[in-house]
Amino acid sequence: MALKLHGIPMSTCTTRVLTCLHEKGLDFELVPVNLFAGEHKQPPFLAKNPFGQIPVLEDGDLTLFESRAITAYLAEKYKETGCDLLRHNDLKEAALVKVWLEVESQHYHPAIYQIVYQFFVLPLQGKTADQAIIDVNLEKLGKVLDVYEARLGTTKCLAGDFYSLADLHHLSYTYYFMKTPWASLINSRPNVKTWWEDISSRPAFKKVAEGMTFGEK
Amino acid sequence: MVMKVYGPVRAACPQRVLACLVEKGVEFEVVHVDLDSGEQKRPDFLLRQPFGQVPVVEDGDFRLFESRAIIRYIAAKYAEQGPDLLGKSLEEKAVVDQWLEVEAHNFNELVYTLVLQLLILPRMGERGDLALAHTCEQKLEKVFDVYEQRLSKSRYLAGDSFTLADLSHLPAIRNLVKEAGMAHLVTERKSVSAWWEDISNRAAWKNVIELAA
């Protein structure tokens, strides 16, 4: 029975999982969820994710939500296939992957999320972006990127000299961020820029990026 | 060599790590970090943790930060001793991960903001934003409704056993209930109440509270 992913091709969190599925070369079915009709907030969907959010993965009779738990599950289940995203053969490397997974989750995400939300999502709802919120978060993101710049001066990727799930988790939001007027936050930091160009040019991500059409007419 | 945990025992994120260490019966040494004087933002500490936050652990010459990464490492390294905090099968582990993510993304920020506005800022002599605190409280009501629904069907968040998913909530809920005057969020919900009674009375957690007293 194939993997079923409920979500949409332009969603940041859905594409986090799609990228992982492609890195692992897995067969799956993408089941669209009609966000504009509020499908995700209605009882049939809420039975899958009580928080009413996409994506949701169904693997036989296992249902999972939270994109970062889904990618961790896929990376673990298929650890012998495709790209080694978790470094499961080395406890220390695996732990360092976990550190930078948390850094993305706790430091990078909160800042970049606000910028992407204000710039891309609000206009879709007919609202105006709040520049004050954007400015505060640009400053926060800048500080986080300073830490990344120093880190990536010592290692090729975040957890070490190897691509891992920690790098992958950054792709979707950063891709949209690079379409905003503030892409210079990445481009002005040489190590971060090199890392970004490297990870975003991986075939698995390029495939997924084709569907990431937020902000395009 | 004993594992070193850098951070004050009173802070929530170090407590998350200490709870895990005590559950697993792992020896450790706490190295106090004086947050009030900004020790965590000074250059020598930034070498340990570039974001200037606690906790940091040093396991021999292996250093880690981010409390949720640390507890996963400890639970994996000491999988053979103490209670199983990770789950056995791949599916069980995935569900533990799912609820850890829920704690990190749907729960933590609301509690953090609320505690910041109601407790921490006033302690520092600044004004807390009560309207913001109230908004967080209302959102937390909805989150706890989801937890109530889950815990009415499952003894613990990830299934029949206590795991990292439950452990990760201990410091924040303790802050809500004991310090921020938000006990009603728990007590008004039957299954959440029973779950909280259970997990907050675990010997390991009580041990951590004693250390922090």
UniProtKB/TrEMBL annotation, chain A:
UniProt signal peptide: none
Q: Does the keyword Transmembrane apply?
A: no
GST N-terminal domain location, by residue? Answer: 1-82
The family line of this record is:
Belongs to the GST superfamily. Phi family.
What this protein is called in its record is: glutathione transferase
Where in or outside the cell it occurs: the entry states: Cytoplasm, Cytosol
Origin superkingdom: Eukaryota
Q: Name one GO cellular component term.
A: cytosol
Under Enzyme Commission nomenclature, its number is: 2.5.1.18
Keyword Cytoplasm assigned = yes
Q: What is its main location?
A: cytoplasm
**Residue runs in coiled coils:** none
Print the keywords alphabetically: Cytoplasm, Detoxification, Transferase
Question: Which catalysed reactions does the entry list for this protein?
Answer: RX + glutathione = an S-substituted glutathione + a halide anion + H(+)
Q: Cite a single GO BP annotation.
A: glutathione metabolic process
SUPFAM superfamilies with a match to the protein in the record: GST C-terminal domain-like, Thioredoxin-like
Species of the source? Vitis rotundifolia (Muscadine grape)
Molecular function per GO: glutathione binding; glutathione transferase activity
Q: Which residues form the GST C-terminal domain?
A: 90-217
From TrEMBL, chain B:
The GST C-terminal domain, residue ranges: 89-213
The main location class comes to cytoplasm
Chain ranges of the GST N-terminal domain? 1-82
Q: What class of enzyme is it?
A: transferase
Q: Which SUPFAM superfamilies match?
A: GST C-terminal domain-like, Thioredoxin-like
- The source organism is Vitis rotundifolia (Muscadine grape)
Q: State the source organism's domain of life.
A: Eukaryota
UniProt lists the family membership as follows: Belongs to the GST superfamily. Phi family.
The protein's UniProt keywords, in alphabetical order, are:
Cytoplasm, Detoxification, Transferase
Q: Which GO terms describe its biological process?
A: glutathione metabolic process; toxin catabolic process
Q: Which Gene3D superfamilies match?
A: 1.20.1050.10, Glutaredoxin (3.40.30.10)
Query: What is this enzyme's catalytic activity, as reactions?
Result: RX + glutathione = an S-substituted glutathione + a halide anion + H(+)
Q: Which GO terms describe its molecular function?
A: glutathione binding; glutathione transferase activity
Which EC numbers does the record give?
2.5.1.18
Q: Which GO terms describe its cellular component?
A: cytosol
Q: Cellular location of this protein? A: Cytoplasm, Cytosol
**By what name is this protein known?**
glutathione transferase
Pfam families reported in the protein's UniProt record? GST_C, GST_N
